[in-house]
Amino acid sequence: MAAPSVILNLIEGSFSPASGGASINVYDPATGQLIATAPDSTAHDVDAAVEAAAAAFRPWSELPATARGAHLNRLADLVERDREEFAQAESMDTGKPLALAHSMDIPRAIANLRFFAREILDGDLEAYESAQGRAEVHRRPLGVAACISPWNLPLYLFTWKIAPALAAGCTVVGKPSEVAPITAWMLAQRAVEAGFPRGVLNVVHGRGPLSGAALVAHPKVACITFTGGTATGESIARAAAPDFKRVALELGGKNAAIVCADAAQPEHLKSTVEGIVRAAFTNQGQVCHCASRILVERTVWDEFVGALVLRARQLKVGDPLDAATDLGSLISGQHLMKVASAVDGAVRDGGRVLVGGSRIEASMLPERVRSGAFFPPTLIDSLAPGARANQEEIFGPVATLIPFDTDAEAIAIANGTRFGLSASVWARDEARAERLAQCLAVGTVWINSWMVRDLRVPIGGIRSSGLGREGGLEALHFFAEPVAVVHGARGAAIAEAEEGAEAGART
Ligand code: NAD
After folding, report:
1. Which domain holds residue 331?
2. Digit-coded pLDDT (tens) for 402-417
3. Residue 456 lies in a domain
């Protein structure tokens, strides 16, 4: 067995352990093996990183956008060069299938870096002409950006934050999840190789309540972009309030998938079932946009639910390294206990488990992964829309099934939680799908699709799912202060001055 890797912080261009010497153990959740140790950073480390970022801000923000974009593209080149190593690390750190890390996480991380490198060049100056003159909107980078990311899509979401921040001219202190820190460490090493100026990108590892909280509270942090749980988001919003730091929060969800009768007709049944399976179970259901409540029009309940249960039963749960694996391990044994207890609670509330429902026995798993945290795709029906499993985020391979009779009822159920992240509508009648989409109180609605992303389009949630948007110009604008610079028209200024002088002479 290889020795665990030693992860270090990147502060002012140099690698260092936590100042107090403490570290956090990082495990492969599929095997239970210790694979790395990460710095358990203190407020002292955070302070050093923020000071380094503050010192690097002016020269970085004054570089032409092309030069900042070139740095991001060089970093993307290095991740691309080492994509195999990155995919293996992401799979090992999270338990997700290696094939998924290959097809989704790593290509998307590369795309994030390249997208914002290009997007910053396209940002035309916003200007308005009128008889009084020309009003321009100048966007000035805010300063030091705190970028805090979760464990479910580690490199994908870390780059989704640091790329627009750096492109916009901010300097960064990143705080990756302590649960899955390896690819952020690899990225920090590539950033040094890519020649990022010292202090422009700092990466501090550690626990949320210690280093994360210190970062959020630091007076020299200008803005915070956070993706994670709703309760953490609330505590970050409170910590940011006294200094009025700008905050973007991407939080949890309880996303509905609405299946209309025409999408379950024999010729469409297979593709709708495949779409729902992807929406509910990708990444073991640990994507914030996963569909966790499947609303099915009652007239096709039997056909649709029957086909969905059959397909869920066929999904292969097992070794993330096996190319045939559909679902790997959950992020940890502790998280598995949370998921299992939510399912037990659903059963106590009257729910009926149609497939899955409890941890996969070790004896059913391949030898290499018998200590892993494997939970099967699980579908539950017979629960009222207000039941806990229909209201609280479970963040595992668990979805509920709820019948509806009318569109009004589907909309009321879909909108009937405190969340508002995303939803999907599955219907062949496009006009009906559009009408439903317009009534859903969420940041994104997918029609006959799920997680199809155009990076130019804003993404984010409302209510307890968050505040603000990421993606495209919205992301670049988040990291900058809009300042109006108004040039008075020559004639207008002279006319006003003359009027003023005349008025003055009269008084
Ligand atoms: P989490 O809130 O526990 O942690 C997220 C990050 O915040 C980690 O880096 C953690 O160290 C840090 N953190 C924790 N406490 C902190 C504090 N007090 N101050 C500052 N930082 C702190 O979330 P998680 O368990 O890593 O991720 C799962 C959650 O993330 C789920 O709820 C999921 O829905 C959500 N999520 C949302 C989106 C989205 O785009 N809306 C995307 C992915 C995940």
Report:
1. 255-447
2. 999 999 999 999 999 9
3. no
Distances (CA, A) of 258 to 270, 272, 425, 444: 16, 11, 5, 14
d(CA 229, ligand 1 centre) in Å: 4
Please state, in angstroms and rounded to a whole number, the distance separating the CA atoms of residues 283 and 274.
Answer: 15
- What's the pLDDT tens digit per position in 28-45? 999 999 999 999 999 999
Residues 295-319 pLDDT 10s: 999 999 999 999 999 999 999 999 9
Ligand 1 binding residues, C-beta < 6 A: 148-152, 157, 175, 177-178, 208-209, 212-213, 216, 227-229, 232, 235-236, 250-253, 288, 393, 395, 421, 461, 466
* Judgement on whether residues 144 and 189 belong to the same structural domain of the protein: yes
pLDDT digits (tens, 9 = 90+) for 344-371: 999 999 999 999 999 999 999 999 999 9
Residues 228 and 276 in one domain: no
Look at residue 122 in the predicted model and tell me its pLDDT. 75
Q: How far is the CA of 101 from the centre of ligand 1 (A)?
A: 20
Q: pLDDT tens for residues 149-176?
A: 999 999 999 999 999 999 999 999 999 9
pTM for the full predicted model: 0.95
Q: Whose CA is nearest to atom 42 of ligand 1?
A: 288
Proportion of the chain above pLDDT 90, given as a percent: 94
Residue the block writes with tokens 């934050």: 161
Whether residue 215 is found in the same domain as residue 114: yes
Residue 410 maps to a domain: yes
pLDDT at 498: 56
Cα 47 to Cα 216: distance, rounded to the nearest angstrom: 11
Kind plus residue range of the DSSP H or E element containing 433:
helix 430-439
Domain finish residue from 393, 424, 447: 447
Q: What is the mean pLDDT of residues 465-479?
A: 94
Q: List the beta bridge partners of residue 16.
A: 9
The alpha carbon dihedral of 423, 428, 432, 434 has a sign of positive
Best mutation site among 155, 178, 232, 394 for ligand 1, i.e. most ligand atoms within 8 A of its Cβ? 232
Residues 438, 475 within the same domain: no
Phi, psi (deg, nearest 5) at residue 282? -55, 140
Q: Are residues 41 and 128 in the same domain?
A: yes
Q: How many domains does the chain have?
A: 2
- List residues with catalytic annotation: 250, 288
| DSSP sequence for 265-298 | SHHHHHHHHHHHHHHHHGGGG-STT-EEEEEEEG
What distances in angstroms separate CA 498 from CA 110, 356, 491, one per listed residue?
59, 82, 10
Could you tell me the CATH number of the domain that includes residue 171? 3.40.605.10
Which residue is listed with tokens 């260092």? 16
The predicted structure's pLDDT at residue 492: 58
Residues 324, 436: one domain? Answer: yes
